[in-house]
Amino acid sequence: MKKTKLMTLTAILTTINVVFSTFITIPIGPIKALPMQHFINVISAVFLGPWYGLAQALLSSFIRNLLGLGTIFAFPGSMIGSFVCIPLGWLLGLGKIAFWPLFLSFFFSSLIGAIASYILLKAFEKRGILKKLKNDT
After folding, report:
1. b or e along 51-76 (b: 16 or more beta carbons within 10 Å of the residue's beta carbon)?
2. Which of 18, 23, 95, 133 is deepest in the core (most CB within 10 A)?
3. pTM (2 decimals)?
């Protein structure tokens, strides 16, 4: 895929992520679990590859934080996961109480996003969209 197309799709997926994440939010203590983030991360990885997918996650987290919709946990949580958020929780003084809430919230958020993206990607596969994408690259 050409760079212009990759950057355009990254911008579109970032926009979809930020908009939908304002509606589908699960607040758990100091974090906000966002299944839409994980959904878009999987879609980004499939359509854009790892580096543009990572850029999408970073941009989405940055924009959500600028708009006051995210937390500091958005950055490691959207790109790496709960295992990086746990030390961040310790640094913020949450101590041992941070492990299970962070782990479980990210687990279920990731699970919901993964299932939703699997369903969408299967539908795309049935319609030949993924095959066309593969031929375009």
Report:
1. ebbbbbbebbbbbbeeeeebbbbbbb
2. 18
3. 0.78
